[in-house]
Amino acid sequence: MKKGHQVTMKEIAKRLGVSVSTVSRALKDSPELHPETKRKIAEMAKEMNYQPNLLAQSLRISRTKTLGVIVPEITSHFFASCISGIQDFANKRGYNVMICQSNESIELEKANIKTLVATQVDALLISLSRETNHFEHLDELYQREIPFVLFDRVQEDMPVTKITFNDQNGAYQVTKHLIEMGCKRVMYVSGPEDLYISKKRKKGYLQALKEFGIKEDPSLIKVTDLTQEQNIKVAQEIIDMNPRPDGVFCMIDPLAVDVLTHWKSKGIKVPEDMSLAGFTNNPTSAVVEPPLTTVSQPGYEMGKLSVSHLLDQLEGLASDEPISIVLDTTLVPRKSTGYTG
Amino acid sequence: MKKGHQVTMKEIAKRLGVSVSTVSRALKDSPELHPETKRKIAEMAKEMNYQPNLLAQSLRISRTKTLGVIVPEITSHFFASCISGIQDFANKRGYNVMICQSNESIELEKANIKTLVATQVDALLISLSRETNHFEHLDELYQREIPFVLFDRVQEDMPVTKITFNDQNGAYQVTKHLIEMGCKRVMYVSGPEDLYISKKRKKGYLQALKEFGIKEDPSLIKVTDLTQEQNIKVAQEIIDMNPRPDGVFCMIDPLAVDVLTHWKSKGIKVPEDMSLAGFTNNPTSAVVEPPLTTVSQPGYEMGKLSVSHLLDQLEGLASDEPISIVLDTTLVPRKSTGYTG
DNA sequence: CTGTTAGCGCGTTCAG
DNA sequence: CTGAACGCGCTAACAG
Coiled-coil annotation: which residues (chains A, B) (predicted)? Predict the structure, then answer.
């Protein structure tokens, strides 16, 4: 299957008996052209349905007006929201977006970066995969002076702009909420421990305990790799504990939902037997039974801010100095922690 | 902010005192080169960290190995799954993907197509917006011989390859299931009526009624524009009906979830008071209380098939003749229709 | 086996 | 006000 022929400036020049450069000038409304020829050319361009070849244009001006985005997973509602925000605001400023997913694999992440760079994107927005625990590929971007920002899943030591949520404070708020609702033994269920957000949220959890003078208890911290299988395993382990915790804060909503589902199948009542809270405010968390207390992270907003700042930098509207943008999270109390709004 | 310099073939040619074309040939492992010079060039390329400029390459061979994708909404789990399938299988065959969302707006859809075409994508995969009820922009693609396929939200009369689900049969199965579970008055809640899937699913609904000798009752068909507001309004209207239906088939899961949530807030019990079913098998449908009977549509599979067939056509592995690929759906019976698996 | 030449489509001097 | 000439980075036909 072959693509049909596309009209070029050359052809419209030929038809009108003018030079290509004249056409080029006319099409970008250069002031130093005779209005009449300008009009004629515009007309002919329209008639022939001329569409500029962005490829050639990009090659010439060595800018593609295209941004590359890498996220761990498109099917995650949170990242989809980020993408949505990035798209909308990139488009508003005349930029296109190429999206890739790393499927939480560092190898795919590297490959994605490589092809995006090869296609000459002007800059990148990256959210790191779960596996990413070394950073040579980012160092290389940095050394090659390819502009990029990190969002949500960031590497703290990288000297680039990072957009994150106030994860620690969000976790602090949930934990505090659980305590205030009467929980005495609050557990934290973490994802992989070297994940940025696992660490931050643990900090917030510990901060709240400390504030209420509760001693940290290692048996009240569990770790899962976030596969459904492990999540359920952890859910069962909690049931089997003696004494059980009376409140469980899960690092992320899908984990909390897995736990909730398993508990329900085992006859555990939430929040009567144990309170349960998540993080992210996925759509799902609002419709499970009981509705899940969680922390909302506006992904769309994060995407919007990330791309806006990046473009500001690209276009010289903002300093090149890397900055750290921290977005606020909001506690969303629901029935799963005994809250009755 | 400026991008750093990128190594070109010219530079490595200069360093080695050979011509650019030799470098070009070496880099693509041409058989007619002296192994030694080939080795040298490869080495130098590596040393200088050469990365080919796909832009220039594309311009030269007038193929970008990039596909454009347009979906109504990235944040919909179903479309995210499609995208995921498209990405994975496009990448496997050496293609990149540019994704756009139309936000259910025909104007944005047109704009998206325009920019994707301008960036010279080799082909397009399009799922139409809800608003799209005229098709000049697709006609133009067709006339300009830009290869494209339509998936899920298709226009039936367009002479291009279309990938759809067997929506009618899916709707038939749900309706039949409701009847078999004992419902005497089954209602169909439709989305906008000129939507392809609204029509197809209605057909399936009617087909099942007919098969069971149930007369079609216009008062048992309602329409919503699928905004949450209208969905809730319809949910209330159903409560207010006298007599009420005893089973309600909602065209799509989010609608069913809205209805369920509203009913629960009004004390209606599902399935005791009324049975309820959706369509799509969103993750949400499995975790609401009660879990929602629905019809599963494998989006990833749809994306995979769409892109695979498109690439087959592009690369001459499949005939250019437009075909219609119809994927099977599967009934997923759950508690909301009284099913106890 | 390798260099020279000639574009791909466009923008930008530099002359007229 | 307009045309000719050049080059972005790369590939390919033609020589040798």
Answer: none
Beta strands B186-190 and B221-223 are parallel
CA distance A15 to A9: 10
D3 C1': nearest CA residue? A19
Query: Tokens 């609002």 — which residue?
Result: A286
Mean pLDDT, residues B164-172 taken together: 96
Task: Give ∠ CA A158-B75-A68 in degrees, rounded to 5.
Answer: 35
Judged by CB atoms closer than 8 Å, whether chains meet at A84 and B101 is answered as yes
The answer on A293 and A179 residing in a single domain is yes
Supply angle C-alpha B339, B219, B253, rounded to 5.
40
Closest CB to B84 among A5, A64, A74: A74
Whether residue B2 lies inside any domain: the answer is no
Q: Which of B77, B15, B7 is nearest to B41 (CA)?
A: B15
> Which of B:21-40 have CB within 8 Å of A?
none
Assign residue A140 the CATH number of its domain: 3.40.50.2300
Confidence band, pLDDT 50/70/90 cuts, at residue A1: low
For residue A290, whether the previous peptide bond is cis, meaning omega lies within 30 degrees of 0, is: yes
- Domain span including residue A14: 9-52
> What domain count does chain B have?
3
Protein CB footprint (7 Å) on chain C nucleotides: 1-5, 7-13
Instruction: Please tell me if residue A289 touches chain B, with a CB cutoff of 8 Å.
Output: yes
Nearest to A75 among B2, B81, B146 (CB): B81
> Going by DSSP bridges, is the β-strand pair A330-332/A294-296 parallel, antiparallel, or unpaired?
antiparallel
Report the CATH number that the domain containing residue A13 is assigned in CATH: 1.10.260.40
Instruction: Report residue A28's pLDDT band, with 50, 70 and 90 as the boundaries.
Output: confident
Q: Is B257 on the interface with A (CB under 8 A)?
A: yes
Q: Kindly list the residues from chain B whose CB atom is less than 8 angstroms away from the CB atom of residue A74.
A: 74, 80, 83-84, 87
